[in-house]
Amino acid sequence: MGSADGPKTGEAEGDARKAREARDTAVSERRFRFLVAGYAVSSYGTFLNMVALNLFVYETTGRALAMGLFMAVRLASGFVAGLVVGGLLARFSAKSIMLWANVGQGSVMLVLIVAPDGLLTGALMAVSVVIGACGTLFMVALRSSIPEMVGEDRRAWANSLSITGRSLAMVAGFASAGIVVSLVGYTAAFVVDMATFVVCAVTVALLPIAGGKGAKAGEADAEGTGGASADAEGAAGADARGSGAGKDASSAKGGGRWRPVALLALAAAPGMGLMVALRGVDAFGSSSHNAALPIYSTTLDASNPAVFVSAFWCVWALGNIGAQQVIQRYAQRTGRSVGALGFGYGTVVMSAAFIAAFAGFPLAVTAVIALIAGAADGLTEVAYTSHLQTLPATLRGHAFGLSATFENLGFGVGMILVAAALDRFSPLAVVGWSHGAAIVVAVVFLLRVAGVRRAERAGRAGLRKEEAVEGRPDRGDRDGAEVSGG
Predict the structure, then answer these.
(1) Angle subtended by helix axes 216-225 and 120-150, to nearest 10
(2) Cα distances (angstroms) measured from residue 192 to each of 41, 115, 164, 176, 229
(3) What's the gap between Cα 142 and its chain centre?
(4) Taking all residues of the chain, what is their mean pLDDT, rounded to a whole number?
(5) Would you say 291 and 415 are in contact if contact means Cβ atoms under 8 Å apart?
(6) Phi-psi category of 392—alpha, beta or left, where left has phi over 0 and alpha has psi -120 to 50?
(7) Distance (Å, rounded) from C-alpha 345 to C-alpha 384?
(8) Which of 165, 168, 173, 167 is nearest to 192 (CA)?
């Protein structure tokens, strides 16, 4: 009787445990959806003010140079924030950083709304600094904390969902900016922008959000559950969870030594530093098509150049959103993420598509190219974010912060060089060499990942061969000792 009850009791406990795990997963995913909704609302405000603020700066100062200075200050603030955010995440919770990032952005928009005419220039500079810094702080805190929020096995789904929300917000923000400004004016646009940050701040405040503050528990969970993603993420993720990363993680507890900790985070895994460098070069390429699109659009329709730019970005966003749906379904069906190779191949396809977009093809063909560029961009975003999330929690924030620094640096330097080059060369030539550099680095990265994986396979094959030799009865103790000793 006792033996009969034993299995039944064990099965009941197992079923109850599975039910609890399923319930906890459903709750964490529902909470994350609410967080993404708040993030999408604030992203709408970000893209709305990207257009409205630039127009307002030009109208207020009457100088195009002022717009360039405004963007430069914004990028420089993001650059600095990327350097310090890893240390902040070691000292404070991700929730507090995300909350105060939104409070800061909403507050500085209020300052701009109520500022008298004599203080407008100073208020605009304050907006540029705070928006640039707080945007980076929020993004890094969110991305580095996703494994703690939803679990290691659901991070590809969560990354895809957040990118989908941001893409939808980008389309809505860019599409409505002109209408909002023309119909209700700049002040109303700034009020809407401030309200979006308030909505996101309230969402963050109401939700329990894990991550940050050393993330000791998160690191333990990552090390305990991360093995399932090793084959999906490649050698870099596997080595990042190894003993070298663990030693480096222990040096991150203080949080103040952001620079060596961040570099150690990238050195902890083969190819991780090259991956972040590729991201920076990709940002450099992105600056070229962002700067060249208005010029190219003017050559197509000088009377209404905004039509092509708006249509291009809308189609790009559709491709991005479509790719996210495919990635989410792939992750749900297989339990795997797209991996490091997906990032490399996606970068090649995306860069090639942006080059082709300026080649003068018919509009229907260009629309297909924009769709492909958006889909490849969505693939690289998910693959890149998921790959950095394989690092231990104490290193993850530093790696994402350094990545944000590289991206801001690449985009900022690119805007300067590209603006100068577009005075002499055609948009196709400028975009060609800018994105061509990204393609070259992406090919080097793919060769690196392929080489590491070949070495891993060879190592596993050699281990199996040694095990087989040790297990052969005809070899004897002497040969077995020699094999194990070597």
Answers:
(1) 50
(2) 10, 17, 22, 12, 41
(3) 9
(4) 77
(5) yes
(6) beta
(7) 12
(8) 173
Tens of pLDDT along 360-394? 899 999 999 999 999 999 899 888 888 888 888 77
The structure tokens listed for 80 are: 């600095």
Give the CB-side neighbour count of residue 67, counting CA atoms within 13 A: 16
User: Does the structure show a pLDDT above 90 at 323?
Assistant: no
For 460-484, write each residue's pLDDT tens digit: 666 665 555 555 444 444 333 333 3
Residue 187 has pLDDT above 90, yes or no: no
Query: Which SS3 state, helix, strand or coil, does residue 212 take?
Result: strand
- Using CA atoms, how far apart are residues 110 and 193, in angstroms rounded to an integer? 10
- Residue 185 is encoded by which pair of tokens? 């004016």
Of the candidate ranges 10-14, 124-128, 188-192, the one whose mean pLDDT is the lowest? 10-14
Are the C-beta atoms of 51 and 223 separated by less than 8 Å?
A: no
Burial class (CB in 10 A: 0-12, 13-18, 19+), 17: exposed
- In the chain, the amino acid numbered 101 is A
Alpha-helical regions (H) of 62-213: 64-91, 94-114, 120-150, 155-206
CA separation for the pair 475, 486 (Å, rounded): 16
Are the CB atoms for 351 and 285 separated by under 8 Å? Answer: yes
pLDDT in tens, 407-452: 888 888 888 888 788 888 899 999 999 999 999 999 999 988 887 7
- CA dist., res. 418 & res. 287, Å (int): 7
Percent of residues in the chain assigned helix, strand, coil, to nearest 5: 90, 0, 10
Task: Write 368-372 long-range contacts (CB < 8 A, 24+).
Answer: 370/312, 370/315, 370/316, 370/319, 371/315, 371/316, 371/318, 371/319, 371/322, 372/319
Q: Please tell me whether residue 256 adopts helix, strand or coil conformation.
A: coil
| pTM of the predicted structure, to 2 decimals | 0.72
Average pLDDT of the segment spanning 206-218 = 65
What are the DSSP E strand ranges found in 418-467?
A: none
* Cβ-based neighbour number of residue 326 at 10 Å: 14
Work out the burial of residue 16: count CB atoms within 10 Å of its CB; fewer than 13 is exposed, 13-18 middle, 19 or more buried: exposed
Structure tokens given for 84:
């310090």
Local structure of 269: helix, strand or coil? coil
Distances (CA, A) of 161 to 46, 264, 283, 315, 482: 18, 30, 22, 19, 54
pLDDT of residue 256 exceeding 50: no
